[in-house]
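Shipment paperwork, digital attachment
Item: protein structure file
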Amino acid sequence: MIQRIQSLYLLLTTIMSVLFLTGSIINFTENSNSTLNIDFSGIERMSENVESIPLLSILLALIPLLSFLLIFLFKNRKLQMKVTAFLIFIIVVQIALLAWYSYYVMTNFNAEINPGAKLILPVVELILAYLAYRGIRKDEELVRSYDRLR
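Attachment content:
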Protein backbone atom coordinates (compact mmCIF):
# COMPACT_ATOMS: atom_id res chain seq x y z
CA MET A 1 0.00 0.00 0.00
CA ILE A 2 2.96 2.35 -0.44
CA GLN A 3 1.33 3.65 -3.64
CA ARG A 4 -1.30 5.57 -1.67
CA ILE A 5 -1.52 9.33 -2.28
CA GLN A 6 -0.69 10.15 1.34
CA SER A 7 2.63 8.32 0.91
CA LEU A 8 3.38 10.69 -1.95
CA TYR A 9 2.46 13.66 0.27
CA LEU A 10 4.75 12.37 3.01
CA LEU A 11 7.57 11.83 0.52
CA LEU A 12 7.15 15.39 -0.77
CA THR A 13 7.17 16.62 2.85
CA THR A 14 10.45 14.79 3.37
CA ILE A 15 11.97 16.29 0.23
CA MET A 16 10.81 19.81 1.13
CA SER A 17 12.19 19.54 4.66
CA VAL A 18 15.56 18.25 3.40
CA LEU A 19 15.71 21.18 0.96
CA PHE A 20 14.90 23.50 3.85
CA LEU A 21 17.88 22.12 5.80
CA THR A 22 20.44 22.92 3.12
CA GLY A 23 22.13 26.31 3.21
CA SER A 24 20.86 29.32 5.06
CA ILE A 25 17.20 29.41 5.99
CA ILE A 26 16.61 33.12 6.45
CA ASN A 27 18.92 35.93 5.34
CA PHE A 28 19.16 39.36 6.97
CA THR A 29 21.04 42.55 6.12
CA GLU A 30 22.43 44.61 8.97
CA ASN A 31 22.84 48.39 8.93
CA SER A 32 26.57 47.97 8.37
CA ASN A 33 25.79 46.01 5.17
CA SER A 34 26.98 42.73 6.68
CA THR A 35 24.75 39.71 6.41
CA LEU A 36 23.21 37.55 9.08
CA ASN A 37 21.82 34.09 8.42
CA ILE A 38 19.70 31.66 10.33
CA ASP A 39 20.68 28.13 9.41
CA PHE A 40 20.83 24.66 10.93
CA SER A 41 23.67 25.56 13.32
CA GLY A 42 22.14 28.84 14.52
CA ILE A 43 22.51 32.54 13.84
CA GLU A 44 25.64 33.31 11.81
CA ARG A 45 27.35 36.52 10.78
CA MET A 46 29.80 36.11 7.90
CA SER A 47 30.36 32.36 8.63
CA GLU A 48 30.90 33.06 12.33
CA ASN A 49 28.38 31.50 14.70
CA VAL A 50 26.83 34.32 16.77
CA GLU A 51 24.25 32.24 18.63
CA SER A 52 23.19 28.61 18.53
CA ILE A 53 19.57 27.56 18.35
CA PRO A 54 19.39 23.97 19.65
CA LEU A 55 15.59 23.58 19.70
CA LEU A 56 15.21 24.75 16.11
CA SER A 57 18.08 22.49 15.03
CA ILE A 58 16.41 19.50 16.64
CA LEU A 59 13.09 20.27 14.95
CA LEU A 60 14.78 20.80 11.58
CA ALA A 61 16.39 17.37 11.85
CA LEU A 62 13.31 15.63 13.27
CA ILE A 63 10.84 16.67 10.56
CA PRO A 64 12.46 14.90 7.56
CA LEU A 65 13.24 11.82 9.64
CA LEU A 66 9.72 11.55 11.01
CA SER A 67 8.00 12.20 7.69
CA PHE A 68 10.16 9.57 5.97
CA LEU A 69 9.44 6.97 8.66
CA LEU A 70 5.71 7.70 8.42
CA ILE A 71 5.67 6.37 4.87
CA PHE A 72 6.42 2.88 6.17
CA LEU A 73 3.73 2.88 8.87
CA PHE A 74 1.02 2.21 6.28
CA LYS A 75 -0.01 -1.08 7.91
CA ASN A 76 -0.98 0.65 11.15
CA ARG A 77 -3.19 3.55 10.06
CA LYS A 78 -4.18 4.63 13.57
CA LEU A 79 -0.55 5.03 14.62
CA GLN A 80 0.21 6.71 11.31
CA MET A 81 -2.59 9.23 11.93
CA LYS A 82 -1.31 10.01 15.44
CA VAL A 83 2.29 10.46 14.32
CA THR A 84 1.17 12.57 11.35
CA ALA A 85 -0.79 14.81 13.73
CA PHE A 86 2.38 15.10 15.83
CA LEU A 87 4.34 15.96 12.65
CA ILE A 88 1.85 18.74 11.87
CA PHE A 89 2.31 20.06 15.42
CA ILE A 90 6.11 20.01 15.03
CA ILE A 91 5.90 21.90 11.73
CA VAL A 92 3.67 24.55 13.34
CA VAL A 93 6.17 24.89 16.21
CA GLN A 94 8.98 25.19 13.64
CA ILE A 95 7.16 28.00 11.83
CA ALA A 96 6.51 29.78 15.15
CA LEU A 97 10.18 29.43 16.18
CA LEU A 98 11.36 30.74 12.83
CA ALA A 99 9.07 33.75 13.19
CA TRP A 100 10.26 34.37 16.75
CA TYR A 101 13.96 34.09 15.85
CA SER A 102 13.42 36.36 12.84
CA TYR A 103 11.88 38.95 15.12
CA TYR A 104 14.75 38.44 17.61
CA VAL A 105 17.39 39.02 14.93
CA MET A 106 15.59 42.05 13.51
CA THR A 107 15.31 43.75 16.92
CA ASN A 108 18.65 42.82 18.52
CA PHE A 109 20.89 43.19 15.48
CA ASN A 110 18.99 46.02 13.74
CA ALA A 111 18.67 43.85 10.65
CA GLU A 112 16.16 43.69 7.85
CA ILE A 113 14.91 40.41 6.47
CA ASN A 114 15.69 39.51 2.87
CA PRO A 115 12.70 37.50 1.66
CA GLY A 116 13.55 34.34 -0.22
CA ALA A 117 11.88 31.30 -1.69
CA LYS A 118 12.92 29.15 1.27
CA LEU A 119 10.46 30.95 3.53
CA ILE A 120 7.60 29.26 1.69
CA LEU A 121 8.87 25.70 2.27
CA PRO A 122 7.60 25.27 5.88
CA VAL A 123 4.12 26.34 4.82
CA VAL A 124 4.22 23.86 1.92
CA GLU A 125 5.40 21.16 4.37
CA LEU A 126 2.45 21.96 6.63
CA ILE A 127 -0.04 21.75 3.76
CA LEU A 128 1.41 18.44 2.52
CA ALA A 129 1.39 16.94 6.02
CA TYR A 130 -2.25 17.98 6.44
CA LEU A 131 -3.16 16.41 3.09
CA ALA A 132 -1.40 13.20 4.16
CA TYR A 133 -3.34 13.19 7.43
CA ARG A 134 -6.59 13.69 5.56
CA GLY A 135 -5.77 10.81 3.18
CA ILE A 136 -4.91 8.47 6.06
CA ARG A 137 -8.16 9.40 7.81
CA LYS A 138 -10.17 8.68 4.63
CA ASP A 139 -8.52 5.26 4.31
CA GLU A 140 -9.34 4.46 7.93
CA GLU A 141 -12.96 5.51 7.44
CA LEU A 142 -13.18 3.38 4.29
CA VAL A 143 -11.87 0.32 6.13
CA ARG A 144 -14.33 0.90 8.98
CA SER A 145 -17.24 1.14 6.53
CA TYR A 146 -16.23 -2.17 4.94
CA ASP A 147 -16.05 -3.76 8.38
CA ARG A 148 -19.59 -2.60 9.11
CA LEU A 149 -20.85 -4.19 5.89
CA ARG A 150 -19.48 -7.59 6.87
